[in-house]
Amino acid sequence: MTEIPTIKPRRKGRSGMQAMLIPSQQMVAEQIRSAPEGVLTEVGTLRRRLAAQYGADACCPVTVQRHLRAIAELSFGALEKGEPVSTVTPYWRMVDPASLLAKRLAGGPTFIRERLAAEGRK
């Protein structure tokens, strides 16, 4: 990976500071692609992995969610155009179909459930 991570200091509590990773869309997509097939991985886990990978204390939840939405739009659009599932970023592995986030992503909860079931998750 040729990207340099952006890590900004951020206040934590009254007197502390923490290093906050502001990930790129590519960083988020790579982490999603590394998620095991058929396993639902929480977005919080994705953020913790990114923070650890780049030596930060935390990873910006707003940025990750914004990138996840963009990734979902790209992946869902590619699938609708007939691209094979193996060529898109499997965002459905990061979103509980019962969550509010699932309702805001391309394809919605039904699509997410279908993709997870196709990967062997019940």
Structural description of this entry:
This protein is of the alpha+beta class and 122 residues long. The chain is built from 5 helices and 3 strands, in the order E-E-H-H-E-H-H-H. It has a 3-stranded mixed β-sheet with strand order 1-2-3. It is elongated, with a radius of gyration of 15 Å. The chain starts with 5 loop residues before the first strand and ends with a helix. The relative contact order is 0.16.
User: Major sheet: order of its strands?
Assistant: 1-2-3
How much helix, percentage-wise, in residues? 40-55%
- Which parts are unreliable, with pLDDT below 50 for 5 consecutive residues or more? none
Radius of gyration: 15 Å
Intertermini distance: 34 Å
Class inferred from helices and paired strands? alpha+beta
General shape: elongated
Largest sheet features: 3 strands, mixed
Compressed to H and E, one letter per element, the order equals EEHHEHHH
Overall pLDDT level: 90
Quantity of strands, as a count: 3
Number of helices: 5
